[in-house]
Amino acid sequence: MREIDITIAPEKPLLVYGPAKIKLLEGEAHIYGKEIEDEVEVSQYKALPVETDNKARLTIEYTVRKPEMKDEGLIGTRVWREEVNRFLDDYGDILILGGTDSGKTSLTVYIANKAFSRGITPSIADYDPGQGDIGIPSFIGGGIVQNKIFSVEEVDGIAYGFIGSTTPMGLEEILIKESEEIYRKLRDKTDFVIMNYHGWVRGLRAFHSIVEFIEKLRIKKVLVIGNKKLYRNFTVFNEVYGENIELFYVEKPETTVRNRTVRKMIRERKYREFIEKTKFREALLDLSLILKEKYGRIRMQMNSKVLKEILVNDFGIDRNPDFIFAIKGLIKIYYYSDNVEKVIYRTYSDSVDIPIEIYVIPRAFLGILSGVKYNGNWVPGICKKVDFNNMKIHMLVPSDIGNSDNIKEVRIGRVAIDLSGREKGLLKKDIF
Length: 432
Fold this sequence. Notes:
Blueprint: E1 2-8, E2 14-17, E3 20-27, E4 30-31, E5 34-35, E6 40-42, E7 47-50, E8 56-62, E9 68-69, H1 81-89, E10 94-97, H2 104-117, E11 122-127, E12 139-144, E13 157-162, H3 172-186, E14 192-197, H4 204-217, E15 221-225, H5 228-241, E16 246-250, H6 260-277, E17 280-286, H7 287-295, H8 305-315, E18 323-327, E19 330-337, E20 344-348, E21 356-362, E22 368-374, E23 377-387, E24 392-398, E25 409-417, E26 423-426
Parallel strand pairs: 10-14, 10-15, 11-14, 15-16, 19-21
Antiparallel strand pairs: 1-8, 2-7, 2-9, 3-6, 3-8, 4-5, 11-12, 12-13, 17-24, 18-19, 20-21, 22-23, 22-25, 23-24, 25-26
Helix pairs in contact: 3-4
């Protein structure tokens, strides 16, 4: 690491790129409204703005990129202060909306810290399954802010929801259901809830999803960051539909934009930490009960001559399926394979009237991030193997979970990982 001493003034905050360490030598300085007292570590792929109201001298140990002083209008919290103070003068549960990497999470931290300074206790609901700030990616979560924080990751979660994917598209119904459950567990425990929405906010379908989300959770305050079109849409929504949602708008500060590769690496770090810190045991779960719980009545017919003819004539597959089940006009077909490392999903609908989905899965190892519901809360697990012959799922679950009979609900996710935390791929559809 290299080290520099630097003095900052109110009009020139400092942007520190991780990995780095920040130490305060003289004066006072803060990050997102939390005062720097002890040494602050900036993790890899993050950049934190250090601000002062007077002057401050700091020493910075950095590895990759030298810290930079920026104009106060480009980084930091000054562009947010007026609207945040206006909100806190008449606070209530609030939804933060903005695109990917727009600063929603940083703004969430700032609002929480400013509330704490006023003697107000907030809670945070992280509704973005892509980042896993409370929990791990594919989950959403919520917790109570016990003291000022530099990051949402410092909040201890008390409620979790398993979405099963790092993207909400196609899973809006599950996201709303789990978000509502987390909100219900938080709203009576603190003065207000800060809801950090995911980054899918562009387009007609996304706006419809947001409106449905707001109506379901009965949200009355919305803060939009860096998206004037979205803010305008809500202004029109209020006028045309006679709604009375209170709107706030702040600009997006200059941030380090993360590309897809970096976001994937951050997810893999969080998966790796989860796997390394968790002591697992293997649980045998009843596949037939799981399917019936999800779908109700299902049919499993392995000797259909017509279906075998369709597989041969239309798809060129001259091999009997290892497992078939049908539900609501959909046929799902599964094949074992010794030659693949991850689930391969294909769907065919052009030449056959009835929809058919075909899955090719590894015989021994799936490694699909999954959720098991235990004592009313979702807990992460790893789907290791599906035994179709005996109708059992081999699931790795945290060892502190009791008897497998107490697991009342299971959801197999769409993210395939190995036991080192490396991401192996994302399924387009639920495996079951």
